[in-house]
TrEMBL record:
This is Histidinol-phosphate aminotransferase. GO terms for molecular function: histidinol-phosphate transaminase activity; pyridoxal phosphate binding. PROSITE patterns: AA_TRANSFER_CLASS_2. The lineage of its organism: Bacteria, Bacillati, Bacillota, Clostridia, Lachnospirales. Keywords: Amino-acid biosynthesis, Aminotransferase, Histidine biosynthesis, Pyridoxal phosphate, Transferase. Residues 23-345 form the Aminotransferase class I/classII large domain. NCBIfam families: hisC.
Amino acid sequence: MSWEENVRKVVPYTPGEQPKVKNIIKLNTNENPYPPAPAVVEALKNMDAESFKKYPDPTCDVLVEAIADFYEVDKENVFVGVGSDDVLAMAFMTFFNSDKPVLFPDITYSFYDVWAELFRIPYKQIPLLDDFSVRIEDYFGENGGVVLANPNAPTGAQLPIDAVEEVIKRNPDVVVIVDEAYADFGGQSVLPLIDKYDNLLVVQTFSKSRSMAGMRIGYAFGCKKLIKYLLDVKFAYNSYTMNMPALELGSLAIKDRAYFEKTVSMIVNTRERVKKELRGLGFEFADSKTNFVFAKHKEKSGKEIFDYLRANNIIVRRWDAPRIKEHLRISIGTDEEMDILIAKLKEFLG
Ligand code: PMP
């Protein structure tokens, strides 16, 4: 007998590389290339470290209120966490306690199966079609819950919201989580459906469209009962998930609608331009509604291109996994960064 027999053994999620060196073009973790809203930058300069003596507000009121105001929902419809990873982990723990499998696609955010394993939740990964689209009928059978990233990651493909609604409607006895980490870049959210379906949890984040990945702020919307259950689990686990700067700076970030809309549209414009360039260079991809493109070259292997870019100080993301090993997930950076990427690809594929 050894203590090791009682260890909860897990295969952890592998996050994208965060290189320590500068002068690298980092297109591997879908960060936003633009700074957070000006009020965030200003408030951080004036932040008083004395305030760190105290615990932060466990109910996260300023942030919850700012999010509720922006999206025109009640405070009781909002849950916040340490990035959407924390929100999703809490949601898996709270809602998926059935013997039936939770369903999600085979190609999707690779944290879902890690949480399922961690929390001992049965799950089934359902193959996407060859064009990486979701066949919604696959989610109509008996199950313990459904998780759909929409737009999906790493494919970038968007499922029309009436199709998502159909999945929610067909699964009234389980919770359906719609992970909208990238929805701001495609403009379609199922948030308005939280009043119609009490089994819907919509999860979003400050990490992409609000340029605050380093602050770790995620949030979710659902009916009041759903959010209350999530809060009970949170308060049974850790009262102080959100630190004081995240609460304050997050609430300032979300108040600046104009800056948010401007930076999102800059990224969308760059993305559309990059799509054309990539197509011209012989790449194929599902149409992306996110801040990345998941592309495969007609001739060169994913690994060859990945290694060439890496050698030229450009990092993109690649998985050595079935069905997607020839693909590269390229985050959308500034126009200047993307010009360098395209120039390097032209040199290589030329
Ligand atoms: N969902 C999806 C689909 C993602 O790609 C990511 C980013 N890795 C997350 C959730 C988590 O993002 P964060 O914890 O930074 O909010």
